[in-house]
Amino acid sequence: MKKEYSFKSKILRKIVIGIAVYGAAYLVSLIALSSFVSLFRYGKDSISMIATLIAGFAAFLTVTADEKPLLLFDPSAVFSKKPYLIVLFILFVIFTSYSLTVSFNFLYSKIPWQVLGDKYVVQDNESLYAIPLLVRIIAYVIIGPFAEEVLFRGVVFFRFKKILPVWASVLAASIFFGLYHGNLMQGTYAFFMGSVMCLVMHYGGSFFYPLIFHIVANLISNLCFESAHINNVVYSTPSIIASIAYIVVAIIISYVFKGKLTKKDKKC
Asked: CB under 8 Å, gap of 24 or more: what pairs does 243-246 form?
């Protein structure tokens, strides 16, 4: 019992340290770079982007040598067994990310968020999308997903799984992920998407799967905001219906095969 308690305490300390290092690295970088804000073309946006990248790498450095192999590629996961299964799972991740992004954004567009009021409820699209598309892709499609996945899936979820049931680990990591986004709309959206990303990582056996999921989701949102044509295609009636239908089918298939995959995984 004492040994088990000691192990859990050690994991919790690792989680706290990982979060603290991420936060400290971000704040220190932000303060240090603020003195040179005039040197950056997009000012505070550029500084925030660099600080986020530094924070992501700093948090990754807290992942110990014994954790990295399983974080990057867990050979015990079913979808890690054969190359064709890895390809199929990557396609599943991409389609799932697209479908959930379309479905959730469509649903969220029907909710009268503005009625609830202030900046703590609705995201500030004016500042979020004020910078050019290329810069947004670097910031929100590459750097942002990398740093956030390192922190929330690589540090928090991956470690919580060692001391908690999977469902509790998903819940804990997703709550942190939702709070991180700072307002009700983005927070609830991040909670649901974060939960799926945790499961994608758990069953896929690699940190790269939720990273791909996150990149696809953010890329869709940025491209749709940039181009009315892309937005009209992505959020057309056929696309929305197909996305919802895909999610329903994916949930059914996942539920049906979950037991079989788990049993097969245990035998390997």
From this structure: 243/98, 243/99, 243/100, 243/102, 243/103, 243/106, 244/99, 244/103, 246/95, 246/96, 246/99
How far apart CA 192 and CA 190 sit, in angstroms, is 6
Residue with tokens 């991180």: 180
Question: Is it the case that residue 260 has pLDDT exceeding 60?
Answer: no
- Rounded Cα gap, residues 144 and 131, in angstroms: 15
Query: What is the reported pTM?
Result: 0.91
The count of residues in the chain is 268
Tell me, letter by letter, the H, E, C secondary structure of 20-36.
Answer: HHHHHHHHHHHHHHHCC
> Beta-carbon neighbour count of residue 161 at 10 Å?
19
Provide CB contacts within 8 A for 116, sequence distance 6+: 122, 184
For the record, the structure tokens of 204 come out as 């896929």
Taking the C-alpha atoms of residue 238 and residue 220, their distance in angstroms, rounded to an integer, is 17
Residue among 79, 220, 75, 60 at smallest CA distance from 149: 60
Q: Is 189:148 a contact under the CB 8 Å cutoff?
A: no
CA distance 58 to 20: 10
Q: Which of 202, 190, 177 is nearest to 254 (CA)?
A: 202
Structure token digits, residue 55: 């924070």
84 backbone φψ class: left, alpha, beta (φ>0; ψ -120 to 50): alpha
pLDDT exceeds cutoff 90 at 159:
yes
Q: pLDDT tens for residues 163-206?
A: 999 999 999 999 999 999 888 889 999 999 999 999 999 989 99
